[in-house]
Amino acid sequence: MNVDLSLLERWLTGWSLARGVPLPRHHGGGLAVDVGRPDQLRRHVFADAGEALQECASRIHEPFVYLKAPVDPDHMRRALPDRWTIEAPHYLMYLSTPISASAASPAGYTARMEEENGASLIRLLDAAGQTAAIGRVALSHGTAVFDRIETVESHRRKGLARALMIALDTVAEQAGTTERLLVATEAGRALYLSLGWRVLAPYSTAVLPAP
């Protein structure tokens, strides 16, 4: 599967719905989201680290404006002046069919679903009713975007992230989703691979450091 601008737009639309920010717009050969938050004013996403991304970078002088592209960090580093910081690598991942596993919560935990912004949010709660793991899935035109899959440190290594992903995938399946997308950290990639996801491309981020 090619990682082109239309696929990135589907990913970014789901990301925007899950975060409650404006939907992406086409801008300068790529996509832009006006996030409008103190730690992220705006993000620009491009299909590569070529001329369009480099021209965009040349016009940015303030911190907290992010550049993103499905390239490896070394490629992003070579494309930009030294003033740009390249963040830790991430991975754009894809799944076309439902996860074939039971959605039962691990013993001692219960699942609770709610709506947040434009996404379905699932929490796994411990025996005291405290959030042990949390994640979101946003649905748009047949695409499900999984976002912010997190497990509280004291509850890690108990299978909660796996159970959470299966529960979120059930929401996607019930909606008739034909495409699932997420961006994974290095730590999360192994879990998603074990569930049948595959890596489409590295996904790199550049930002100007705060003064």
TrEMBL record:
Residues 81-211 form the N-acetyltransferase domain. GO terms for molecular function: acyltransferase activity, transferring groups other than amino-acyl groups. InterPro entries: Acyl_CoA_acyltransferase (IPR016181), GNAT_dom (IPR000182). Keywords: Transferase. Signal peptide: none annotated. Gene3D superfamilies: 3.40.630.30. It holds the Pfam family Acetyltransf_10. This is GNAT family N-acetyltransferase. The lineage of its organism: Bacteria, Pseudomonadati, Pseudomonadota, Betaproteobacteria, Burkholderiales.
